[in-house]
Structures are given as structure tokens and as C-alpha cells.
Design goal:
By secondary structure, the chain is an alpha/beta fold. Strand 2 and strand 3 form a beta hairpin.
Amino acid sequence: MTTAKVDDEALFMAVDGGGTGCRARLETADGKVIGGGLAGPAATRFGVEASWAAISTAFSNALDEAGIGRSDAGHIHAGIGVAGLSRQGAREALEAMEHPFASAYFATDGEIACLGAHGGRDGAIVIVGTGSCGLARLSGQLIKIGGYGFPISDEGSGAYLGLRVVRAAMMAHDGRMAMTALLGEIMGRFGDDPGNAVQWMDQATATDYAAFAPIVVRHADDGDPAARRIMQDAAAAIETIGRTLFERGAERLTLIGGLASVIESWLAPDLRRRLSPQLGDSLDGAAILAGRPAIGR
């Protein structure tokens, strides 16, 4: 991953193109935000053309807010993180797209998250959201652990919690394990009919499974034994990713994502003590990718 070499008058366009939406932020070299923009999903699974359309909309909105026309963007350097950039041919296709900037550097959304979390320095992250993934940047090398997609991967994630609780609810319905308040609520969502659960399963996505995660967390907080087992197993999966990253040479590790704070409370105390605070977000990482000096926020 290469970043731009820039002059003192340069501006920096940071873009975070994710699976649920795309954000852009235009900044000065000292981190002052002068424009922002939003757009729809930019993950390459929706197609490279659709991905670029969302990215272009987001950065165009940021330029508009800053009062800068596309034809006057030649002093701006862009760092663009894209979910699914590792898909075959995606990077090459996006790098070939016409843009108005002095330079444009691309990385995965995980890479910019890692850059931002550690202020541009070496470090590792475990992303815990709908999916999960471990990532480290060490001496210019990128290390990835997991994150191969649900259901074959994404251990410890929101989708993992949903899959585990639906499976347990079906088993409890059969009498193969004890019914609890959590499992009864899940079966109630399907009208206490396994056939409805099977019909739902045929169309369900990782996001659909992850929608059950808050229910698991709520019941775990109330002491439900099935919920606690599921949370303990999820935390163990995240611990394995984190410990593997430490074994691979990471000195800093940060948990990020929508479920990070929840899962952190279930981790083993020794691992919690080794966690480092998040220094910046994905847009900070994209700005660093573009060439903006690393700064604290």
C-alpha cells in the first residue's frame, strides 16, 4: 500500500466505501474538515460501476460542500477504502476510473480502518460487526485473519450470534436442549413453527441473522444461560483472532465495529488489558492513505 507525496497546499479527500453506505470527507493537512458527503453502498459485490458511482457521488458532495468544482480539484489527493476491493479485478477496474484528483490511492475498508485506529502506525484490529475479521499492518505487510464471509467464517460476529441462537432455538423446540426465555423469544419470532424458520433461512442474509444479535445480548445481560453460552463462544472466537494477531507480531490491538464494546466485556481479562484505544476512524485512515500527515483527534 502506497501513500501520496504531497505539498503543503494539498487537500485530502478521504472516502470510506462500505456495504451499507459511502462517506467522504475533505480535509486540510492539519485535519480541518471543510466538506463532507454521503452516498449509498459502495461494496464491490454490487458491481464495480455501482461502487464507483457511490464513491463519486460521495466525494462530489464533499467537494460541493467545500465550494470546490471538480475542475478545480487538481490539488486534492484522495484515499479511498472500498469493501470487497480484493475481489478479482476490482482494484484494477477502480484504479482505471477517471477522477478529478492529483492522485487517488485505493485500499480495502479494513486497511483504512487499521490505519485510522493506530494513527498510521503499525498495529492490528479485530472488526466485530455484522461480520468479523482480524487485520494487521506490520512493517508494510498486511496480515488478514478470517473474514472469509458468512456462514463459513465471521466467527464471533453479529451474524454468528444470530446463527447460533436460531440453531439453539430449533433444538430447544425439539427438546434437545432446555428452553430458555431467549430461545422462546426467538421461536416466537417464527410463530413457534420450525417450518417458518426454514422458509426464512432459505432467503436470510448475514444482515438478517445479525438482527438477532441485540436480543442475544439483552438476554445475556439478564443472565439467560443459553444467551450467556452463545456470548462466551463468540468472545472465545474473537479472542482467538486477537491472540493470533499478537502471535504474528502485532504490538497494538484495537477492537472496532458495532459489537466491539459488547464483545470486549466478555473477553478474558488478560486480553482486555492488552487492548489499545482507537486513535481514529476509517476516514482518518483514508486521509492518511491519501498522504495527510497522521494527527491525533
